[in-house]
Amino acid sequence: MDYDGMTKSLLTRREALMTGAAALLAPRLVLAAPEAVTLTAGVVAKTLPGNVGPSTLWLYNEKIAPVLRIRRNEAFTAVFRNELAEHSAIHWHGVRVPHAMDGVPFITQDPVQPGESFTYQFAPPDPGTFFFHPHCNTVEALGRGLAGVLVVEDPRDQGLFDIEHVLVLKDWRSRHDGSFEDFLTDAGAARAGSFGDLRTVNGAVLPTLTVQPGARVRLRILNVDSTRIPMLSLRGAAKPVVIATDGNACDPFALNGWRLGPAMRADVAFIAPSKAGAEIIIEDVFGTKPRPLAKLVTAGQELRSTRASLRLPAAELPQPDLKTATRLDVQLLSGSADPKLEAWAKENGVSPDEICLTQKVFWSLNRQVWPGMAHDRLPPPLFELKSGRSYVAELFNGTPHQHPMHLHGHTFRVLGSSERDLPPHWADTVLVRPKERIRIAFVAGEPGDWMFHCHIIEHQETGMMAYLRVS
Ligand code: C2O
Ligand code: CU
Fold first, then answer.
1. 263 close to ligand 1 (CB < 6 Angstrom)
2. Ion ligand 2 — residues with CB < 5 Å
3. Alpha carbon of 66 to ligand 1 centroid (Å)
4. pTM to 2 decimals?
5. Measured CA distances, 263 to 15, 17, 231, 404 (Å)
6. Which domains are seen in the chain, by residue range?
7. Would you give the DSSP letter of residue 22?
């Protein structure tokens, strides 16, 4: 397992796989041990770029956005050690993990208390670009940097690209002295969220990466920010295409300002310019003035590639049957604390101070707000589904803000939008714009309660969260 590489020269990766081949000869049952990795969540003082004083960050293994590479369908073991001062867990965002591995405290597992560990074990069924993060007090944990990248490699991809880079987008709400502004503000939570001014890629401001002239380049771009929705563009690259959405292969479509909401990922492919010294700027074109985020420079030996191969082998996901699918309606709405639920919480002795417990409510799903109760005191599920059955959900956004809606444990087919041309694609997080109706389809997976929420974390923490119960 390669633990660190943000960047991979695919030649050396193949070599690495060769040397790893010896380990693969060991019997399958004991394979878990050599493949185990430890992820320690801890507090680290680090000075963020441009600041004069250190920030109190929460990081996995003391790194900003560490990259973990594992292989599809192979057993993977991660020992999570919690060295934070509060309970935590790891949610493997977008990975179709067994329910007990989904990392939602109180719902799929007991919270991992400070000083304790928990072992996650699963064989990822789908290749792609994923990430991991905690699922309680998420606004602060993500705000302080607690997130990592999980790349699930697909043996079918071998040789398709000459180079790849992982680009992790994240903004920080840090002041110049390193201290943080409030991660959740009423003004932000009730609107588009509280933005960070310090915009980074892989923890750096405008980093420069290299690619060979003429190379087939794959960028795995992840937005791990809690708020920002950049519109991605690659200035200087001819015809960049999105080849995977949330890690899942799609029919390539032009990048062209694709909006990458919080938690969304896009794999982008293009052929690098054929002369050395050319620059490609990855920018956010949302504002009136494009905002450069990272730079790619061509250097080294020229490669001669053709565009023909800029596509990934098709995703192999459960195909919903649209003819027999049951229809679900989800309305994304504003909300306010439900007096019935509040009274009920009081009766049941649920303390409002408990971590994970929403105190402020601005949002709802079908007028139901997330009260954040412990496992045995959950609110009713938003829907009850039957494992193996197909569903088509229509998500309607009745608010003036965008919401990236995420469903745990399932990869859904985005069928289309009422408002725009949206190429059909697979996703685990879909951005729903104001007044828009988006239809998604999926096959209900493993029995259990699966979270469904907005990934603008201030929205999630102020009501826009629910769960689907699969039985
Ligand atoms: Cu990445 Cu429930 O979230
Ligand atoms: Cu939202």
1. yes
2. 403, 454, 456, 459
3. 18
4. 0.91
5. 32, 29, 14, 8
6. 3-153 (2.60.40.420), 163-298 (2.60.40.420), 326-470 (2.60.40.420)
7. H
